[in-house]
Amino acid sequence: MNIYFSGSIRGGQQDTELYKELIDYLKQLGTVLTEHIGSKTIDTSISDQEIHDRDLQWVFESDIIVAEVTVPSLGVGYEIGRAIEMNKPIICLYRSINGKSTSAMIRGCSNLKCFEYKNIDDAKLILKEQFKTINMDWKDISYLKEGSPVQTKAHKCLKELNIFDLLKEYNPVLTGTIPLGISTKSSDLDIACRYFDADRFENYLEMHYGRQTNFTVEQKEKAGYWIVVAKFIYQEFKVEIYGALFPVASQNSYRHLQIEHRILELLGDKFKQQVVKLKQEGLKTEPAFAQLLEIEGDPYQQLLKLETATDSEIITMWNA
Ligand SMILES: O=c1[nH]c(=O)n([C@H]2C[C@H](O)[C@@H](COP(=O)(O)O)O2)cc1CO
């Protein structure tokens, strides 16, 4: 796994030693492409344009961006913005100094995860917990092959439909409950995609899947977003391909998948069985999680808030 560590240089180098400690820790989790940020020696042999182009190429090659954003830096802010455009997972870490927090454009951005920490041990714990979820590559569906009978069947159908090759440019990810192993008989095969041109995406879906049983495709507004939804039946599965204009990683179905996966990993089989039981009784997935964790309010929104909770906070929510 390639990691792009981002930290202030010309914005101020007072935290360089801390960056070095973070980089050393990240080296245990993957390959850090930007080790130079942990050193005060500035390479003057390359031009600003070379730095810019090299670093953007590294952002592109990274699987994750970790940014320490306590010292305000134009370069770090710019890298984060470009990484969001590239649909990369981003973790920002900051310390409040003299009551001063970090920019609202970072803390308030739903395309990244922002954590406040106090010391290096805190930061390491946050990184350890976050990397556990991020390491799961949902784009590669081979994990289904070794799974439950329904997961193996899903794998076979998705291969036969060639969904992940045909829709490659739309960045498809299987979401919903089948990847999590908590599906019931009525669970769909949900595929989340990102389009850049809704009409083109709709036509493409029609061209490739229009002959499938009960095929329908429509464009509509949902919760303020313009979406394209194609549905059809394939063998025993209802397939739903869903496209929106924004990156899959920031779509709610994907974010729910990630947080639910993390909760299931943390709370184990007993919790999983309770979720399945509530679903069999007719509850939808997110309301089932919310009921068991005693979360009040809109379960779809409230579950997303757990993205920045620590493992121990999540564990204490469940009184088995
Ligand atoms: O010499 C450099 N090398 C380099 O890699 N950078 C990149 C990596 C850092 O994450 C970020 C720091 O930006 P700034 O220098 O504006 O604080 O920019 C920035 C500079 C100098 O701006």
Percent helix? 40-55%
Hetero groups bound?
5-hydroxymethyluridine-2'-deoxy-5'-monophosphate
Helix-strand topology string? EHEHEHEHEHHHEEHEEEHHHH
- Give me the secondary-structure category: alpha/beta
Taking pLDDT < 50 over at least 5 consecutive residues as the criterion, the unreliable ranges are: none
Order of strands in the sheet with most strands: 2-1-3-4-5
- CATH topology-level fold name of the largest domain: Rossmann fold
Can you tell me the number of structural domains? Answer: 3
How far apart are the first and last residues' alpha carbons, in Å? 35 Å
Pfam family, one: Nuc_deoxyrib_tr
EC number: 3.2.2.-
Keywords: Glycosidase, Hydrolase, Nucleotide metabolism
Function: Catalyzes the cleavage of the N-glycosidic bond of deoxyribonucleoside 5'-monophosphates to yield deoxyribose 5-phosphate and a purine or pyrimidine base.
Written overview of the protein:
The protein has helices at 16-26, 48-61, 74-85, 104-107, 120-134, 149-161, 163-166, 198-209, 252-280, 285-293, 299-305, 311-317; strands at residues 2-6, 31-32, 64-68, 90-94, 113-116, 173-175, 189-194, 213-222, 225-234, 237-244. The protein is α/β, with parallel strands linked by helices and 320 residues long. The protein has three domains: 2-134, Rossmann fold (3-Layer(aba) Sandwich); 141-250, Beta Polymerase, domain 2 (2-Layer Sandwich), CATH 3.30.460; 255-319, no CATH class. A five-stranded parallel sheet has the order 2-1-3-4-5, sandwiched between helices. It has a five-stranded mixed sheet with strand order 6-7-10-9-8, sandwiched between helices. α1 packs parallel to α5 (120-134), α9 crosses α10 and α10 (285-293) packs across α11. The mean pLDDT is 93. 5-hydroxymethyluridine-2'-deoxy-5'-monophosphate (5HU) is lined by residues 6-11, 37, 42, 51, 55, 73-76, 79. 5-hydroxymethyluridine-2'-deoxy-5'-monophosphate binds next to α2 and α3.
